[in-house]
Amino acid sequence: MSIKIVDQVHESLMEDAWSLYHEAFRELNSLAVQRHLMYRSEFDEVMLDPRVQKYLCLNDDGALCGLSTYTNDLESMPLISPQYFERHWPRYYAERRIWYVGFVAVEAGAPVTTFAQLIGAMHETSTRDSITALDVCARTDAVRHLPRSVRVLLHRLSGNVRMHRLDEQSYWLYEFPDAA
């Protein structure tokens, strides 16, 4: 397996990239209130946006088995608020030392090390004395313990790492049962 970092996904890989991404995240659309799957048009924009680094994990046959996005240009990411980061870490924001993981998608049959290799490659890209953020829905946290798993991976790569929950959104439902 190898990791290739590109600024734009070549058109010859775009369908494979979309299929991998769609398959990895489509189930979340029925399990999480907030949409976790970009529309195809949003996906294509991100794949072609040179401000966002794309990490392509290729198996020994050269086929795409993992894909992730990473950027320190927070304006390039749909669905996040760069102003939040600027307010809380103004110096880091001004110096472009805040990195954001848009997503990490791994093919179901990919080697078990694929996810860790993508995380490791993104970690190597970020500068020392920087911070990295990602969003994880409550279900993925509860079922896969993703934030803790990422912390363990990063600890193995660089020693001391601290993890903080940035924000949490809850959704509420109000029912109106028939009057008794």
Instruction: Kindly name the structural category.
Output: alpha+beta
What share of residues are in beta strands? 15-25%
> What's the total number of strands?
5
> What is the helix tally?
8
Q: In which order are the strands of the major sheet placed?
A: 1-2-3-4-5
Distance N terminus to C terminus? 64 Å
Sum up the structure in keywords.
180 residues, alpha+beta
Q: What's a concise summary of this model?
A:
By secondary structure, this protein is of the alpha+beta class.
Summarize the structure in words:
This protein has 180 residues and is of the alpha+beta class. The protein contains eight helices and five strands. It has helices at 11-25, 28-31, 40-48, 82-88, 90-94, 114-125, 138-144, 146-158, and strands at 2-6, 53-58, 64-71, 98-106, 131-134. A five-stranded mixed β-sheet has the order 1-2-3-4-5. Strand 2 (53-58) and strand 3 form a beta hairpin. Helix 6 crosses helix 8 and helix 7 packs across helix 8 (146-158). It is globular, with a radius of gyration of 17 Å. The model has no long low-confidence stretch (mean pLDDT 91).
